[in-house]
Design a protein that fits this description.
The chain is α/β, with parallel strands linked by helices. It contains 21 helices and 21 strands. Helix 6 packs across helix 20, helix 6 packs across helix 21 and helix 8 runs parallel beside helix 9. The protein is globular. The protein binds adenosine-5'-diphosphate (ADP) and magnesium ion (MG). The site of adenosine-5'-diphosphate (ADP) has 14 residues, from helix 9.
Length: about 650
């Protein structure tokens, strides 16, 4: 129903609501608060230093304003809370001064500074507030206050509109869920926490159930997409695998078997290979390309950067030398003529496998018979290139490789109908990296450990969060570390610096020097996270390591431990060692990502892909993981017990999402 239906809501406010993507009364009702203020008065006698405080009182004297600099002012006054008088300070609210007359009653919200008997306020409330209130807080936009959104929502709720409840009755009764309308009313006007929790769970569950129902329906029906017809000589595949300079690990072999079965089956392959850095995913893709070649099709191998593309190209050539496969590298640096010639060979089918970045799928790149597309580090691409391929009229089998392991259930929700092969076993002969946690005061031990590695003629990475000193933080920075390291080791060893603000050529230059062991200590920001492989580097020292996410730390650590030498990782941190302890206990990327998943409210691991139908109002795939699992089971059971094709309401929801997918 249209917003204009609401009495008193004029065009100006409607335009403001549109800014918040509220187009209808239904949107307005489901515009949920993103947080709540729990206004329950504090007991001053039991507060600890730094606790949140909410307290009523009366202004005791005239407020004073101090202008600290152009951007910062401070307003202070004394505040009588009955039992005693405390100080109140609030920043950048000088304008409040004229409203703060002596004797006025206020409610103050802020942090309690025990030592100074003072409140550092974040909010000053005028007027009468209930002693115990849960106040919904909405996202707002300029010109529209929280209280006016509250007002419009209250008005809207009083109309008693119908809301569509998508949860099946059997589920509602199984969990004793509130009715949807009741839940919506409570979420906007909560009286107490317990019922608010119930209401939120009910609404979240509905979102998650629908989401999983769609996913599971898609998965159950995916065999519809047909792939290519292939005939493959299995003996030749065996011969190729035997020609490799090492025997495959169990998981590599399993992944190859998965791929082989996908390729000979009539359905289209859509598979993700997950495995830690160094677990041997590239070799798997090399075998996959060979199988595809045997059945007469071209392959494309796509890497996130040109450096990695080149590295892959060189690796391929090494393995394919004796097998007559013609490969090519497409780079941005190629001359026009060179590129033209290469593209015409690709079009004529003279090239069997082409390696490059996403430029492999620009308009002028035409394949004769593209049969397999492999994407390395697929999460870096973000876009779903399957639709890209479809637009060009290709229906190749698709393989993704990722070194950012994702817990299985989450991967399922994230990648939808993708099959997954995990490579968990590492190739033989690798030593576990020994990881230790040190405080900043232990710097002498760290330097000593570094010195031992240097004496063995090994090299060291040192990582800091910042490039240079910053006003707003006391994090260690690259330039400061350079001084420190120079002081300790400068006489004996060469020290290089690498960071994101440097030119590409400068970076390449430094990297080459490190590769050639002309530099022994490389100090850097996290730019070394990608694509660097120096086998002689055996130590990774990370300053302010609590600053980084678990998975980022794991990736950084993966820069060492690439040879038969024992490698070390030293995590320096003065706080939050709980997360770091996980790293010190395991080298297993899968375990780490599971732990990361459990520990964190949000983070980089899951900034992977946002698919169109994953926009939830309330549910959060990370925080509500357990609810997601429940919804997954329930939706599977529901699909099993119901003929969804005959259920018009459910089917329309599902079809809706299939068109998106
Ligand atoms: P990833 O792409 O998963 O990071 P790579 O495929 O680049 O890993 O493999 C890392 C290194 O391990 C390469 O030098 C590769 O030749 C080697 N390797 C791969 N599989 C094995 C194996 N089964 N046994 C011994 N070495 C292997
Ligand atoms: Mg790789």
């Amino acid at each position: 129903m249209e917003l204009a239906f609401l009495k008193g809501l004029g065009p100006k406010n409607i335009a403001l609501l549109h800014k918040l993507k509220i187009e209808s009364l239904e949107d307005l009702m489901t515009f949920y608060p993103f947080r709540y203020n729990f206004i329950k008065r504090s007991n001053i006698n039991t507060l600890e230093d730094h606790d949140t405080i909410i307290i009523d009182g009366v202004i005791e004297d005239f407020p004073k304003v101090f202008y600290i600099n152009k951007k910062l002012n401070k307003l202070s006054f004394r505040f009588n809370i009955g039992a005693k008088i405390v100080g109140v300070t609030i920043f950048n609210r000088a304008f409040l001064k004229r409203n703060l007359t002596v004797g006025k009653s206020l409610t103050i919200i802020g942090k309690w500074d025990l030592k100074h008997n003072m409140i550092v306020a974040s909010e000053i409330r005028f007027g009468k507030l209930e002693r115990e209130t849960i106040e919904p807080i909405y996202h707002t936009t300029y010109g529209l206050s929280n209280s006016s959104i509250q007002k419009w929502i209250t008005a809207c709720l009083s109309l008693n509109l119908e809301v569509e409840d998508y949860l099946p009755n059997e589920i509602i009764s199984q969990y004793h869920f509130l009715s949807k309308m009741d839940a919506i009313k409570i979420i906007h006007h909560p009286n107490e926490i317990e019922s608010l929790k119930k209401a939120r769970t009910r609404l979240k569950y509905e979102e998650l159930f629908l989401f999983m129902l769609k996913m599971n329906y898609l998965i159950a029906n995916k065999s519809i997409t047909l792939g290519l017809k292939r005939k493959i000589d299995e003996k030749k595949v065996k011969l190729f695998i035997d020609s490799l300079p090492f025997s495959l690990t169990h998981d590599q072999q399993k992944a190859i078997d998965d791929i082989y079965l996908d390729l000979i089956s009539p359905k289209r392959m859509n598979r993700l290979i997950q495995g830690d850095v160094g677990s041997g995913k590239t070799v798997v893709s090399i075998v996959a390309i060979y199988i595809n070649y045997l059945s007469g099709y071209q392959s494309a191998l796509m890497a996130p950067t040109e450096i990695l593309a080149k590295q892959h190209y060189e690796t391929l050539n090494k393995f394919y030398e004796k097998f007559g496969i013609k490969s090519a590298l497409l780079t941005g640096k190629m001359k026009v003529k060179e590129r033209k010639e290469l593209l015409s060979r690709l079009k004529n089918g003279e090239i069997d496998v082409i390696v490059g970045t996403h430029a492999l799928f620009t308009d002028d790149v035409i394949y004769q018979n593209l049969g397999l597309v492999i994407t390395d580090e697929q999460h870096r691409f973000g876009v779903n290139q399957r639709s890209n391929l479809k637009n060009k009229g290709y229906t190749p089998d698709v393989l993704y490789m990722s070194a950012t392991p994702i817990p299985r259930t989450y991967a399922l929700t994230l990648y939808g109908d993708m099959d997954i092969s995990n490579i968990k076993t590492m190739p033989n002969g690798r030593k576990e990296i020994i990881t230790s946690i040190k405080g900043e005061k232990d710097i002498k031990d760290v330097l000593q450990a570094m010195y031992e590695q240097l004496q063995l003629h090994h090299q060291i990475y040192v990582v800091a969060p910042l490039i240079e000193e910053s006003e707003n933080s006391d994090f260690e920075n690259v330039h400061h570390l350079e001084e420190k390291m120079n002081l300790a080791f400068g006489k004996l060893y060469h020290i290089g610096v690498l960071h994101g603000k440097m030119k590409d050529t400068e970076k390449e230059n430094i990297m080459n020097q490190f590769q050639e062991n002309e530099i022994q200590i490389l100090i850097s920001t996290t730019v070394i996270e990608v694509g660097i492989d120096v086998k002689n580097a055996t130590m990774m020292v990370i300053f302010d390591s609590y600053r980084f996410g678990l998975s980022a730390l794991h990736q950084l650590r993966g820069r060492v431990g690439r040879s038969e030498f024992q490698s070390y990782c030293i995590l320096i941190s003065n706080r939050d060692t709980k997360r770091l302890e996980i790293l010190s206990k395991t080298n297993d990327g899968f375990k780490i990502s599971e732990e990361d998943f459990k520990l964190r409210g949000s983070g980089d691991l899951f900034g992977v892909r946002q698919s169109g139908d994953m926009t939830f109002h309330l549910a959060d795939l990370k925080r509500d993981y357990n609810l997601l699992l429940r919804a997954k089971e329930d939706s599977l059971a529901y699909l099993k017990n119901h003929d969804i094709e005959k259920d018009d309401k459910m089917l329309s929801i599902l079809l809706d999402s299939i068109i998106q997918a």
